[in-house]
Every structure is written in C-alpha cells, then in structure tokens.
C-alpha cells in the first residue's frame, strides 16, 4: 500500500499522553503563548534524482511515474543493467557532515537542533521539502565510474542504503523524515511549510495526509487530479498566532510561470575577485522573462495575506514561505569570469506580491529554504531574508569551491529591487538556525553549522533582525531602462 499508516488527528488542550504502537507513551508538546526562540531547518530529505537508472539506452524522458520520477520509454528498455549509463544526482546514504563527501546527515542535524529546541518556550519551523527520494536508487550503484560519472563525483553518491523506502509512500515518508526527525518532533511544537517537493506529483499526498495543518475536509480536494485524489496545488495563506508574534504562512509549492529553477544550473565557486566585477551593478532576476513587471499566474499564493496581517497590526510579523523573496546566487556561464552573473530569486513571487498589492508592516524576517545553502540577505529597506536550505539534502555546494564570497557583495554597492544589498553571507554547509524572539532580547538569528572530528565546519553567523515594512514596487521586478 502506498500510504498505509493510520493517522490520528485531534485537538489537545494540554500535554496529552498518547499510546504508541509498542504500548509506550509520549507527550505532545504544545505551543507556548509567547515563544522564546524558533529553531529553523529545512530541505532535509535524501536526494535521488535519476536521469538514467542503468536500464535505459537513452536519457529517460518517458512519462512520469506516480511519484514524479522519470521513466524509460519501452522501446529504449535494456535487457541487462548497465552501470556505465547511470546518470543523475544521487546523495550517499551515509551520514557524513562534510559537504565534499555528499552524505545525508539529516539525523545528525535533527539531533543537534533538538539540543537547541529543548529550551522551554521553543518552537520548530521546517521550511519545506521533506522528501527527495522520488525514485529508486540504481542498484547496484556504479563502483567503477566512467569519466563522465567521475566529473560529477560530488553529486554522485551511493544511495543504495535507501533500499525500497522511497516515493510518496508511508515507507518513504518514515525513512526520509519521521524517523530521523523523531527526537526533534518530541521536544517542541512545529510549524511546517510546503515546498516544491510536496507538489502533488511528488510528495503531495503524503503532505496532506501527515503534515498539512488544516482539519480534514473533503471539500478541499474537490477538483483534484485522478492520479492524486487527496492533493491540491493551491491552498490559501494562514496565520499562526501568538500573544506577541504572528507568523504568516504561504504555500509556495508550485510557481506557474517559473522559467528557470534554482536547481537548473550547478552552483559555481564565487570568489572575492568575482565580487569585484559586480561593484555598482544591478542584480537581474533569475528568470529573464520576470523583468516585465507584475504579471503571471502565481498571485493565488499571496491572496488574503494582507488581510491576515491587518487583524494584528501591533504584533511583530514573520513571513514563512518555502521559496525566498530575496535570494542571491551566482551562475558561471563559461570559463571566462566575465561570462558569470549574479541573479536574484524568486522574481515570480515578487511579481505576485506586487500584483496583489501586499503591504505588511513590522516584519522582522522572511524565513525560507529552497536554495540548498544557508544565506542571510539584508537589503537596505526590506525585511531580512533568511534561507535555511541546508538541513540535510544534497547541498548546492559547487564542485570547485564554496560560494562564500557572496558575503562580500554588501561592500560592493550592488542593488536589487532598487535597494542596496547590505549583507549576504552564504555558506554551503549543513546546519540549522535559531531565531531569538523573546520580548526582553534583541531579535536576532544565529546560523549554526555542523562540526565533528572529521570536519571543522564554519563558525556561527549571527545578525540582528529589525522590523521593516514589506511593500514591493508596484510594477514588480523591473530593471532600469
């Protein structure tokens, strides 16, 4: 059975002991009236993204499987497995925290985050993308790599440890999320965001079965596709209310008019020398067609958002959405340094916010994932953008170096959306974040990176979070003429 596990849904008003399958009990942690801190992590699953599983004479372009994976057209199916044909992005099943070893250390990240979240008054925010094992790992995984496979060694890990636990199934969800996250699930209540790996053709039905916070209502699924009867693409924003804080949560699982994905091009090294070339420049959007202003079909994501916020104007507000508003990345388009470019993402959301006329006050941060690194983006007059896409899945860490010099862009008078970039530290290592939100303290975020005897890891990155108004240009993301 695909999603065979029974699910218990109910309301609780105090710590509520429930019996486990083994006869044991556990206590459900409940939200505090005012959180003292928010532990943030995301993009956590084991990545298995196959372009050829070794059974196809050509690159797999056949119809998508029910789990969103590629398949081989029947006429190209081979009679015998050929490991030299295996191609794609595969994450090793071992738990190394060293980015160069391409392991999957989500359980270690969750364990470290548990030590932070055990503090009284904590809540946990998962910024989305819980499942990544949408296909079976090629078996046996190639041992003697071809030259082409060797070039991709940093994204070509032996994933056979995943076994048959994959797909939008109970086994897939348990292995990719619930089992490694178990210690963290026990110590604090969670806010969960829907990511692009929870679209209906990937992990969408598991998302609605296990994590979507709305009460079960068959009316929600009216018009659902036959292949995914318990999943819909569009769900409205909602608010998570505390006495002092209001978290505004958006479903950004699918962008209708997205031209280019952040995963579309492998991230390249970005050095201080690269940064100097961009001094005084304007950052364009990642999707070139986006620079035509507030057009597109993704405005459903933000409809009603401003109305939610207006109910609690005196509160401090946090915007939680899987895809970032103010991300910054570098693409090396050729061997010559002059061929590289900075780009911002995600412009489709900028345009949707502008089209809807969203105006939010007293916003301390936009908290996201999607980009498989840590990044902190501070523009001069916009709320801070936090990206925690480094919780366990395959990092965007480049084959030939770290993107850490993106952090010096703040000294280069570079602008995006008409605002100067003040800070942009970017680190391609596994970790999580802690946002301090206690009333008597300065609001700040600390990014914490994993380290052990085999990998030193970077030092913590911290920044103060100041309330800002979020009001985007009326025309959306347009470039100077």
Provide a descriptive summary of the structure in words:
- The chain has 481 residues and is of the alpha+beta class.
- It is built from seven helices and 22 strands.
- The chain has helices at 106-117, 147-151, 170-187, 204-210, 272-277, 305-310, 347-356; strands at 16-19, 25-28, 37-41, 48-52, 87-90, 122-126, 190-192, 238-241, 245-249, 316-320, 327-331, 341-345, 359-368, 374-379, 384-388, 415-416, 419-423, 426-427, 431-436, 444-449, 461-464, 468-471.
- Strand 16 and strand 17 form a beta hairpin.
- Helix 1 packs parallel to helix 3 (170-187).
End-to-end separation: 57 Å
- Secondary-structure-derived class: alpha+beta
The run of helices and strands is EEEEEHEHHEHEEHHEEEHEEEEEEEEEE
The strand count comes to: 22
Question: How would you sum up the global shape?
Answer: globular
Averaged pLDDT: 87
Features:
7 helices; ten-stranded mixed β-sheet; alpha+beta; 22% strand; 481 residues
SSE blueprint:
Blueprint: E1 16-19, E2 25-28, E3 37-41, E4 48-52, E5 87-90, H1 106-117, E6 122-126, H2 147-151, H3 170-187, E7 190-192, H4 204-210, E8 238-241, E9 245-249, H5 272-277, H6 305-310, E10 316-320, E11 327-331, E12 341-345, H7 347-356, E13 359-368, E14 374-379, E15 384-388, E16 415-416, E17 419-423, E18 426-427, E19 431-436, E20 444-449, E21 461-464, E22 468-471
Describe the structure concisely.
The protein has helices at residues 106-117, 147-151, 170-187, 204-210, 272-277, 305-310, 347-356; strands at residues 16-19, 25-28, 37-41, 48-52, 87-90, 122-126, 190-192, 238-241, 245-249, 316-320, 327-331, 341-345, 359-368, 374-379, 384-388, 415-416, 419-423, 426-427, 431-436, 444-449, 461-464, 468-471.
């Amino acid at each position: 059975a695909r999603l065979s596990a029974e699910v218990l849904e109910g309301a609780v008003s105090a710590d509520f002991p429930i019996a486990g399958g083994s006869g044991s009990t556990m206590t459900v942690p409940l939200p505090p009236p005012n959180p003292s801190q928010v532990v943030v992590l995301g993009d956590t699953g084991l990545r298995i993204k196959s372009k050829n599983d070794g059974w196809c004479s050509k690159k797999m372009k056949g119809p998508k499987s029910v789990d969103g994976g590629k398949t081989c057209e029947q006429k190209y199916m081979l009679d015998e497995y050929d490991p030299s044909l295996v191609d794609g992005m595969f994450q090793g099943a071992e738990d190394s925290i060293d980015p160069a070893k391409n392991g999957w250390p989500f359980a270690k990240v969750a364990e470290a985050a548990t030590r932070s979240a055990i503090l009284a008054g904590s809540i946990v925010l998962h910024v989305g993308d819980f499942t990544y094992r949408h296909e079976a790992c090629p078996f046996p995984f190639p041992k003697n790599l071809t030259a082409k496979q060797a070039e991709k060694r940093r994204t070509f890990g032996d994933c056979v440890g995943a076994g048959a636990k994959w797909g939008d199934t109970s086994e897939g969800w348990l292995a990719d999320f619930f089992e490694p996250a178990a210690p963290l699930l026990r110590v604090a209540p969670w806010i969960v965001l829907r990511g692009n790996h929870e679209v209906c053709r990937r992990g969408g039905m598991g998302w609605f079965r296990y994590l979507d916070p709305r009460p079960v209502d068959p009316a929600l699924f009216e018009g659902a596709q036959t292949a995914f009867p318990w999943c819909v693409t569009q769900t409205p924003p909602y608010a998570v209310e505390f006495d002092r804080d209001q978290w505004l949560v958006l479903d950004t699982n699918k962008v209708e008019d997205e031209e280019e994905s952040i995963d579309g091009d492998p991230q390249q090294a970005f050095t201080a020398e690269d940064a100097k070339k961009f001094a005084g420049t304007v950052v364009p959007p990642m999707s070139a067609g986006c620079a035509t202003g507030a057009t597109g079909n993704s405005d459903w994501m933000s409809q009603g958002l401003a109305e939610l916020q207006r109910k609690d104007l005196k509160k401090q507000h946090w915007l939680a959405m899987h895809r970032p508003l103010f991300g910054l990345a570098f693409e090396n388009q050729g061997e010559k340094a002059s061929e590289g470019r900075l780009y911002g993402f995600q412009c489709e959301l900028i345009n949707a916010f502008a089209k809807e006329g969203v105006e939010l006050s007293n916003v301390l941060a936009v908290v996201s994932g999607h980009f498989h690194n840590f990044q902190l983006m501070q523009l001069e007059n916009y709320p801070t953008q936090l990206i925690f896409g480094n919780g366990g899945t395959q990092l965007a860490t480049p084959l030939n170096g770290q993107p850490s010099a993106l952090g010096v862009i703040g000294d280069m008078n570079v602008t995006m959306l008409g605002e100067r970039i003040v800070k942009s530290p970017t680190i391609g290592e596994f970790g999580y974040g802690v946002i301090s939100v206690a009333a008597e303290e300065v609001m700040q975020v600390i990014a914490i990176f994993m380290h052990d005897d085999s990998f030193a890891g970077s030092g913590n990155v911290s920044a103060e979070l100041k309330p800002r108004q979020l009001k985007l240009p009326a025309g959306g993301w347009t470039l100077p003429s």
